[in-house]
Amino acid sequence: MSHISRRWATREDAVIEDLWTAGPPAPLSAADGLFSVSAGTAHLNHGSYGAVPVPVQRAQEQLRTEHELDPDGFFADLPARIGRARTALAADLATDPQHLALVTNVTEAVAIALDSIPFAPGDRILVTDHGYGAVTEAVARKAAETGAELRVVELPLDAPDEAAARAAVLAAVDGRTTVAVLDQLTSPSARLVAGPALLAELRALGVVTVVDGAHAPGMLPAPADPNADFWFGNLHKWAFAPRATGVLAVRPEWAARVRPLALSWEHDKGFPANVEWRGTCDYTPWLAAPAGFELLRALGPEAVAGHNTALAAYGQRVLVERAGLRPLPATPGVWMRAVRLPAGWCESEAAAKALMAEVWRRLDTRIAVRPWAGGGLLRISAQLYNRPQEYERLADGLAVLLKG
Q1: Is residue 119 within 8 Å of 133, Cβ to Cβ?
Q2: What whole-number distance in Å separates Cα of residue 351 and Cα of residue 44?
Q3: Distance CA 402, CA 345 (A)
Q4: Neighbour tally for 104: CB within 10 Å
Q5: Considering just the CA atoms, what is the radius of gyration of the chain in Å?
Q6: Where are the domains of the chain?
Q7: Strand 230-234 to strand 246-250: parallel, antiparallel, or no bridges (unpaired)?
């Protein structure tokens, strides 16, 4: 690591330490009444399904009303309206609207990306053990179908920054490696993996990069890294869009090779129209999606980021101090944190689901738990509707529950 990189890592550690020792942030008054999530439940899993703000719900409802008043008229100019929505979203994502397509979610996007890349027997595809399960399964199926080899790179859970993940991925690249499917921010551990440095190095090595940026839009500035051959993200998590709204960005050299999942009347127009149009579907989430970014700008992105980052850090802190759980290293500016459950807890998918159900039943709290050998990973999220006492309730309840 260079001298500059060491200084930057030290600065990040200092920021994280300041957040760790600070108290919980004050709620943003501008967010009062902004969400319709039930007040009796602690929704600490925004990172999975999000929560649509009331103004965005209303924008979508107006579109649904318009749709039903004149279905034929609504569909008549829909491709053009989708194009305008895409252009607005591209500005917030800092990418080119001509190389961006709207999709329902990252599960659809990874299927399109994998179908667009030519694989040959003996090719090696890299994924990591922190990857999202559905994405990894899609890669495994594509490898089995084409004779390619799936290689899973193990990333250290306790690495203090992204450098260790970058080193592990690069060490796995060899002459047979053709594609790397990597998370920008990992779902189970809330860590940055496919950062700009790693993507640039993989590109220089001739490796095609497919980046799962599910958690990036709305949270990270300029999330669509231009070095990624394929990048996709969900807008229903942190960008306040209705479900199901996602985006797929491709580098220009791939646009003509993109293979949509189904043919449509827009197929001859090429990417992105051939990916976006799927006939008689509900497009109101996509048309309402720009309202999510508009709301984020009105609230102030820095204020939202400051609140959510500090609240996530506080939540992790009370889980460590009150429930005795081990913290995993945090990436600065991320609105999620992860802790390690004790050995023997949630080492299987069934056990992880059982704990989430029990926490919901006993504590009226929604969390995300992922199985892991040696002790599962519990991830919390922070959004404007969350309050410090919700994390305190979870921590105190877990302290009792984990004692059996």
Answers
A1: no
A2: 19
A3: 8
A4: 18
A5: 21
A6: 3-32+300-401, 54-295
A7: antiparallel
The residue among 329, 335, 349 whose CA lies nearest residue 16 is 329
pLDDT per residue over 242-300, tens digit each? 999 999 999 999 999 999 988 888 888 999 999 999 888 999 999 999 999 999 999 99
Note the maximum CA span of the chain.
Answer: 63
Supply the DSSP symbol for 50: -
Number of H helices, E strands in the chain: 14, 13
CA dist 215 and 292 (Å) reads 15
- Above 90 in pLDDT, residue 144? yes
In this structure, what are the phi and psi dihedrals at residue 345, rounded to the nearest 5 degrees? -100, 130
Report field, pTM of the whole predicted structure over 0.85: yes
Residue 369 in tokens: 């738990």
* Mean pLDDT, range 8-36, rounded to an integer: 68
pLDDT tens digits along 297-316: 999 999 999 999 999 999 99
Query: Across residues 4-17, what is the average pLDDT?
Result: 37
- What gap in Å lies between CA 335 and CA 220, rounded to an integer? 10
**Identity of the residue numbered 28:** L
pLDDT, tens digit (0-9, with 9 covering 90-100), for 159-170:
777 899 999 999
Confidence of residue 19 (pLDDT cuts 50, 70, 90): low
336-340 and 377-381 strand pairing? antiparallel
What is the CATH architecture of 3-32+300-401? Answer: Alpha-Beta Complex (3.90)
Question: By CB neighbour count within 10 A (0-12 exposed, 13-18 middle, 19+ buried), where does 159 fall?
Answer: middle
**pLDDT value at position 162?**
84
Interstrand relation of 230-234 and 208-212 (parallel, antiparallel or unpaired): parallel
DSSP 147: T
Query: Is a pLDDT exceeding 60 seen at residue 7?
Result: no
- Segments of 155-266 assigned E as strands: 177-183, 208-212, 230-234, 246-250
Is residue 87 within 8 A of residue 114, CB to CB? The reply is: no
Report residue 109 as tokens: 């996007």
Supply the angle between the helices 349-363 and 388-401 in degrees, to the nearest 10: 120
Return the CATH class of domain 54-295: alpha beta
